[in-house]
Amino acid sequence: MSDTIKISATVRSDFGKGYARRIRMAGDIPAVIYGHGEEPKHVVLPGHATTLAARVPNAILDLDIEGESHLAMIKDIQRHAIRPELQHIDLLTVKRGERVEIEVPVHVEGEPAVGAVANQEETVLLVEADALKAPEALTVSIEGREAGAHVLASDVELPSGVTLVADAELLIVNVSEPEELDVPEPGEEGENAPEGDIVEASEESDQAGEAHDSDNSKH
């Protein structure tokens, strides 16, 4: 279940790409807080602490903004295309006891039956939960499942207080037989190769004979 992560934030006074770039160069992260009909609030978050917090799915931050506590959930993260850096974060204002819709990672555990393979079709599941009690992950077991078995969204066991929002028929895991590869029968390649060599040798012999006949006709 979610625990709040305390982080100090400062209000942004300037805007624009240049200012945001200077924030990142200083090791901090620009962010915006929105929700509950309030005007968006632009803040600056400490880079290291926020990066650690962002590793937790649907993390709840207890922000200290100019001495006032503000609860917010990480909703969207913009990452650098190459470097492992956070470029910008969107935060959703939440209140204690409030229920929110969130996407929770789905982890698959166990091994299917011998001769079967499992393919995970969905990696997250949309659910509704108390903002401060949201699960970090959901787990489904495929242990011993035979080819042809399916795990649907409705099959995923949800913690108490968490309800499914996604389509109940959404396919999460598909267990099937492994795909057969077209492998040449033993000897097929070997049988064809000599024939090609014989044809090429025959063509070369014919060409040589034609050249010899041509030389003789000149004499």
Structure description:
- There is one protein chain.
- With 219 residues, this protein is an alpha+beta fold.
- The chain has two domains: 3-93, Ribosomal Protein L25, Chain P, CATH 2.40.240.10; 99-174, RNA Polymerase Alpha Subunit, Chain A, domain 2 (Beta Complex), CATH 2.170.120.
- The chain has three helices and 13 strands; from the N terminus they run E-H-E-E-H-E-E-E-E-E-E-E-E-E-E-H.
- The protein has helices spanning 17-25, 47-53, 188-218, and strands at residues 4-11, 28-35, 38-46, 60-65, 68-79, 86-93, 99-109, 117-120, 124-130, 138-141, 150-152, 163-164, 171-176.
- The strands form three sheets. Strands 1-3-2-6-5-4 form a six-stranded mixed beta barrel. A four-stranded mixed sheet has the order 10-7-9-12, with no helix packed on it. Strands 8-13-11 form a three-stranded antiparallel sheet, with no helix packed on it.
- A hairpin with a 6-residue loop joins strand 5 (68-79) and strand 6.
- It is elongated and about 75 Å long.
- The chain starts with a strand and ends with a helix.
- Mean pLDDT is 84; it is low at 196-202.
